[in-house]
């Protein structure tokens, strides 16, 4: 019975691995393109079992166009989960390396684009009504009215009842 459940879980994960990877990349602030690039580079080094040897980590990261120091590589290796054979799986690689090398400029660009989408009247501010709509009706957040008001009160430093871009960054960087 347990083997059957395990097989179903593994099968579900394998069937949905691209969606799982996309979700992980999104949670890390990586674009779909960055996630795909990481996947392609990882695949170039993978050793037939979907994993990469820990010793090849520096080469993998450099192949992504990054230039980590030896100290950076050592620090990343300490954070990675490595199996008994010295291998790293892709999901752990994305989580650790993505966090380390996500381009702050890309993150800023993503937040700026999100702000523009939410700023329906393009006045450079998000009103409490715009924020309430975003946080109670959109995506997976579905916060209560009270939770939204508490969040806004926490970041609306000038207490004008609306958030400018800088206050928005504080809200979504927490």
Structural commentary:
The protein is mainly alpha-helical. Helices cover 65% and strands 6% of the residues. The chain is built from ten helices and four strands. It has helices at residues 2-15, 17-27, 32-45, 57-63, 70-79, 90-101, 104-118, 128-137, 145-155, 165-173, and strands at 51-53, 87-89, 126-127, 162-163. The strands form two sheets. A two-stranded antiparallel ribbon has the order 1-2. Strands 3-4 form a two-stranded antiparallel ribbon. The longest helix has 15 residues, at 104-118. It is elongated.
Short description:
The chain is built from ten helices and four strands; from the N terminus they run H-H-H-E-H-H-E-H-H-E-H-H-E-H. It has helices at 2-15, 17-27, 32-45, 57-63, 70-79, 90-101, 104-118, 128-137, 145-155, 165-173, and strands at 51-53, 87-89, 126-127, 162-163.
Tell me the strand order in the biggest sheet: 1-2
How many strands, what sense, and barrel or not for the largest sheet? Answer: 2 strands, antiparallel
Radius of gyration: 20 Å
Q: What number is the mean pLDDT?
A: 77
Structural class call reads mainly alpha
Question: Topology as H/E string?
Answer: HHHEHHEHHEHHEH
Which runs of at least 5 residues are low in confidence (pLDDT < 50)? none
Q: What is the oligomeric state here?
A: single chain
Total strand count, please? 4
**How many H/I helices?**
10
Specify the helix fraction band.
55-70%
User: Could you say which overall geometry the principal axes of the C-alpha atoms support?
Assistant: elongated
Distance between the termini: 43 Å
Q: What amount of the residues lies in strands?
A: 5-15%
């Amino acid at each position: 019975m347990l083997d059957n459940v395990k097989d179903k879980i593994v099968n579900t994960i394998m069937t949905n691995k691209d969606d799982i990877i996309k979700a992980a990349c999104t949670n890390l602030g990586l674009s779909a393109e960055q996630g795909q690039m990481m996947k392609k580079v990882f695949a170039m080094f993978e050793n037939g079992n979907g994993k990469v040897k820990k010793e090849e980590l520096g080469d993998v990261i450099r192949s992504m166009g990054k230039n980590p120091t030896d100290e950076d590589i050592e620090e990343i290796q300490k954070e990675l989960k490595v199996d008994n054979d010295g291998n790293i799986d892709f999901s752990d690689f994305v989580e650790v390396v993505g966090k380390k090398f996500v381009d702050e400029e890309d993150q800023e660009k993503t937040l700026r684009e999100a702000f523009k989408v939410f700023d329906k009247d393009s006045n450079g501010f998000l009103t409490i009504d715009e924020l309430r709509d975003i946080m109670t009706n959109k995506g997976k957040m579905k916060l209560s009215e009270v939770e939204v008001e508490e969040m806004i009160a926490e970041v609306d430093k000038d207490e004008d009842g609306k958030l400018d871009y800088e206050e928005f960054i504080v809200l979504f960087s927490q």
